[in-house]
Amino acid sequence: MAKRRQGAKLFLFPKKFATNPLRRSHILPMNSKSISANIAACLLSMVIAILATSARAQSAGDYRSVSSDVWSTVAIWQKYDGANWNAATAAPSSADGVITISAGTAVTNTASRSVDQVVVAAGGLLVVSSSTLTIAHNTGPDLDVFGTVIQLGGTSALTLAANAVVNVENGGVIVHNGTSNAGITAGAGSSVNFLSGGKFQLLKSGGTIFTAVWSPGSICEIAYAAAGGSKPGAAGLAQTFQNFNWNYQAQAASIDMAGSLANVAGTLTVLAGPTNAATELKLNAGITIGGDLVIDNGSLNLAGSGGPWTWNLAGNLLIAPGAQFNLTDGTGGIYTFVFNGAGVQNYVNQGTNIASKLSWTVNAGSTLSLSNSVALNTGSRTLTANGSLYLNGNTVLVDLLAGTGSIVNRGGGNGLLNLGVAGGNNTIDGNLALGDGTAGTLGLVKSGAGALTFSANTPISGGLVISNGTVFVNNTTGSGTGSGTVTVAGGALGGTGIISGPVNIQSAGSLGIGSGTISTLTINNNVTIGGNCKVQVNTGNVPTTDKFTGINTLTYGGTLTVNNTGGTLTTANSFKIFNAAHYAGAFATISPSTPAAGLAWDTSTLATDGTLRIASGVNLTPTNITVSLTGNILNLSWPADHIGWQLQAQTNSRTVGLWTNWVTIAGFNTTNQVTLPIDPANGNVFYRLTYP
User: What is the pTM of this model?
Assistant: First the structure.
């Protein structure tokens, strides 16, 4: 006979969240696109449920449960006669009307039987035990689940006849905790449909997930209760799920999905027991996630071996306190994590992210906003920003930087890009736009032994810190390093471009390269040299020296290292190395100590016009001192080419004579003559010249 549906009630239950917003057994997608989709899906489900309520009026022959027991217990059933509900005289079957498992009742099937048009109301429970329960096909859904269905039996405990339809509605759950891995036997043309808010829960370790239609907002959850579980059957994982929860909080060993899980259109949530490698969930293959990736507890290991693989994420990456995000394969693997959402995607790390072997890519049209710093510091790992990356005052450590999008520091503070951390070479050429935010600045750090080259204006104000390697500033307009201070703590700063911020060369840093092509670096600000200033000179070249120009106040210090790559230097040579409005200080040393044999560095005009000159050197051949008397004044002189020698003296009694007590007379190494008064009280006074 034709059947009509019994009226159904709509039950709405508020979700309960723990204090930590990431700590919840089911986490819906958080990005704006997913939220909109889920709200729409939930509203649609509510409308369908409300319409169903008016359409499913009771009909004669319908059954409902009024208490709990096995299916065959007649006393738990009432039957509708068209006007009233009366005590049933037999248990219902497929020959009867709509069969409703009412709220607050639990019905267990223990014998083989065939039924259809079964409604498990919200709060109702249908337990499918060891005997076969066959869902026959009639009109409408043949099993409509608003409450809970638990499958406890063997392979064929729940069987769908040909064309049978099972709908799991919002709030409805089908639980597979059977004695065999297979949880259902599906006939030709039959279907299981998890609608928005409907859930499948796998409690059977190693069991198979039903092949189903997973609507937006539906949930597939792995929730093994005991330790020692294994991954679900590969065939069941080869579906496109909506929300997928790995909720195995009793997990005591690593479980490798071995690439079986490949597509989650909604949110992937991981709760994998204690946070250590021994209890991690390992994917070991790429995956596409249309919503969020939420690591709520335990450890998610993207790959322990294999590749190259790519993981695509359209939502947020959220790591809860105590949780861990990891990739343990060797450094040679090629692994890329791609952010490809349509709205703003958030990275929130309240736990531990040690997946430093990943490269990150922000696709064109996508935006990634960081709530925490990120380390991608394994060799050759690349941050590719083809979309927008917001640092929000955080730091990104990465070896290589690429992309045609933008990186800005939104959200205040000073966001940092730490580049070349594993020795990689990078070029800032304007194709990837770098910039400050409305309330914050963007700064750069150069780490590692490689090179960083600026070939375009870089409109940032957070400064540049060089800790290692070489930085070449080769832009032709603007300022290659922005308007902030350039601090050279290690490594070297050189190039042919323009810097507008102050430059501070610390004791372990260098200004200039001192080799290669002779170049001019323009610094339109103050420069302080406390380390090594390296310049190359070549009298056969035009220009003849490296030059630093545009300087406001230049403060000398440290060492000036001169590398002569041309011919022999003479006193006719001079090199204008610096062009500054004001000069201060002096170099502590010049290397080499002399330009050539018989020559000396003349630094007398470095402090006035920035020019290093060459003077005749000191004659190192010993010479005599010429002596003359004028009254009681002793006149001593020596050849001019011995200026730089030191005058020493010793005074002894007449009985001692010449001894070893020589004392240098200060102030006479810059001249070749001296006058000294004769003291008659002195017995013997001796003089000599020494060098140096």
Answer: 0.82
